[in-house]
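Help wanted!
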Amino acid sequence: MLEIINLNKSYGKNKVLTDINLKIQENKIYGLLGRNGVGKTTLLSLISNQLLRSSGEIKLDGEEIFENSKAMEDICLVKDLPESLKERKVKDILALAGIMYKNWDEEYKNYLIKEFNLNVKKKLMKLSTGNKTILGLIIGLASRSRITIFDEQTLGLDAAMRYKFYNLLLEDFENNPRTIIISTHLIDEVANLFEEVIILNDERIALKDEVSVLKEKSYFLAGQEDLINRVIKAKRVIYKDKFGSKSIVGIYGDLTEDERNYIRTNNIEISNIPLQKLFVYLTENTVKGEFSNGFN
Amino acid sequence: MDSTNRILKFHIYGLKKTALGFWSVMLIINILSYVLTMYYFPRVRVGLFSGNDDTISLAGINIMPIFIFFIVYGILLYHEDFALALSFGATRKDYYKSTIISNILVVLIFAVIQSIIQIVDKHLVASLGFNPMTEFGIFNTSTDSILYIILVFSSIFLTLNSVTNLLGVFQYRFGYKFWVGLGILVLVGQMFFGNLILKLILGFREIYLYLLPRFKSSTIFITGGFVTIISYTLGYFLLRKANIKK
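Answered by r_m:
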């Protein structure tokens, strides 16, 4: 449905995105992950037409989205509001959002204002960072856009508010299915929301896969180093550490039935790598300075 | 509702309050002007005075605030509204189209209000015992119909609005660099041509005084139309490659 083909973006001589190719399916929740400054916001801003690309194509249902009113009606990017709006009242910003989004749900907006206890009479500049984030969340959720994108929209929120948002998002997603893209650093908190994960690294898409597949493919192995080495010979090692005679190795790849039997019989401990750690290992340049993890 | 209509509604939402606020203040100022003139003239002199024939127009003082309104309006349309509309999924083309439509609406509303005030002013000034100013070079409130006066004001305001719109686009695209560039231009101009700004203002005054007796309605409309088309076209070419700003 949303297709990105050979997308490139540079700021002057500084290249940010190189040959990005992506297909985003309908009614799925995606997690967009990447280190700071890797180009996540740039990619999302390009998808929502807020930035001009250097080259490449972005298509929605086969139609180029650039300056395409019909396509843009279906995309809502929630990120920090422009600084120039600091004098505007929250209720005015919400009213303008209501005018602009064709599927805007006014009733749901009012419900969310009560749920998050947001003071709509205040000016934007008088809101705390957390409340500014809540304003963005309300716009994103009430927009009911076919593609709703949340870019780092947990900034300044305490744990209770973050979980409230996750619950509301899931509840609304069940009632009104749509495509949701969430860019965040709090990966473990939202890992259960994601159906697919896209990892940006070194200007490119380093990985795009179903979360369930990622979990099935990534393991920690802990045990005697020589025993572990026999299993990891042909595997992609993304983490390696040693505590005395015991080694801990993170691998990314499928394990055969024979390998599983070998692990069991040799008392090698096996566990899944949490998504947050997997992300860290996949986006690190080297494993303990020894070798590349193959994703850079 | 299609996207251009939605953006137009978006424009009108902010404009309603601003225009209403502006005209409320202007009407209060106008009423105060009549009161002050009635009780304190000639100690307090408010309005436009003609030295030649001792005529007065109190509503004439509205023109300068209207000009200032259009300058601020032109800049805010991009400094605030464009960035917000773009964050809410508007395309640059749709935004620009609806900006032109809303500019025309504002111009018409302002032209109608100012024309009515100008006509009423003529009677009020006369009722206060003064000689009302009716000859404004490009129109005459005694001999021209109100429709013609509205048309003249609309043409002037639209021309001005197109230029301030372009100023807004420049300010959005280049930010402080635009003003720095303008400053450098003025400084360089002063180095080569002496007091450039003063000369420009005096030049305009000279041109205006030269053209005044030769003014025909067609001249105003053709010149205004030409400047308007050039300004809006140039504005679009600058805006269609604009990114959103933080």
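OP: Thanks! One thing I noticed: The CA atoms of residues 69 and 75 of chain A lie 10 Å apart.
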